[in-house]
Amino acid sequence: MEFKNLLWEITDNILLLTINRADKLNALNGETILEIQAAFIEAKKTAGLKGIIVTGAGEKAFVAGADISEFQALDMQQAKALAQRGHDIFFLIEHMQIPVIAVVNGFALGGGCELSMACHMRVATANAKFGQPEVNLGIIAGYGGTQRLIQYIGKSKALELHLTADMIDAQTALNLGLLNYIEADKTTALEKAKTIINKIATKGPVAVAKVIECTNAYYKDGVDGFDFEVNAFASLFHTEDVKEGVSAFLEKRKPEFKGK
Ligand code: COA
């Protein structure tokens, strides 16, 4: 498969998807997220795949978030469509019937942290950093982050991360339950992810698919919460704060929020 911002490589029946916009820290612009969707649809149709690894190009970032430059001109309707599209794509990933592992090599912020959380497991490099910094922009997570972070680390710490926009390092993420493993670097993290996928490939494939389905079903009550997030995300695009927050990031200055 050929993509503009995504590398698709199958070795030993394991698909490695690399988000490939290193100059923008692999930020998810519209084109890239649609390519991720196309890749997962294609993966579903690819016979014999044992699992999928998602990672970011380069050493600095997994994904530094949704592409903030695309937020500048969004009205509420467009913001809602953007969030809903992200939800649909991340549900597609979460509901794959083979294991999907994020190899988090550097920053996993905003939509990047959310993408890693839509994967079934996370193996990080020692330099990985996680965060949901959307409030810095006057917005909130819009790709399922308000729902999935609670699932992994509990309400108390999830609220702290969303409200303070603080970044946490890999060791803290492991201690909180967000991560499965930390490895020294990307090479060893990829090896670890492949080892996990190869182990799962020796088990009954139907049972593996059912484990994923049942585990996702545990959070079914969260479906309302996901809808709630889409609407809340969209409503913020009616505020002056989002214009200020986004402009401030792009102009590399501190935002001055007015609270309206
Ligand atoms: N959207 C669009 N562009 C982004 C981006 C994003 N989420 N994150 C980084 N970039 C771009 C930067 O604008 C910069 O582009 P430029 O070289 O054309 O100016 C490039 O990627 C490199 O980023 P830079 O900020 O210079 O790197 P840094 O090492 O100084 O800082 C971060 C790294 C991750 C701390 C910083 O880029 C950041 O805070 N990014 C935004 C994170 C975020 O808020 N994500 C949630 C979005 S909803």
What's a concise summary of this model?
This protein has 260 residues and is an alpha/beta fold. It has helices spanning 30-45, 76-94, 111-118, 145-153, 155-164, 170-176, 186-200, 205-218, 222-236, 240-250; strands at residues 6-11, 14-19, 51-56, 61-63, 100-104, 107-109, 121-125, 129-131, 168-169, 181-183. 48% of the residues lie in helices and 16% in strands.
Characterization of the model:
- By secondary structure, the protein is an alpha/beta fold.
- The chain has two domains: 6-200, 2-enoyl-CoA Hydratase, Chain A, domain 1; 205-250.
- Helix content is 48%, strand content 16%.
- The chain has a six-stranded mixed beta sheet with strand order 1-2-3-5-7-10, sandwiched between helices. Strands 4-6-8-9 form a four-stranded mixed beta sheet.
- It is globular and about 55 Å long.
- It binds coenzyme A.
- Coenzyme A (COA) binds next to strand 6.
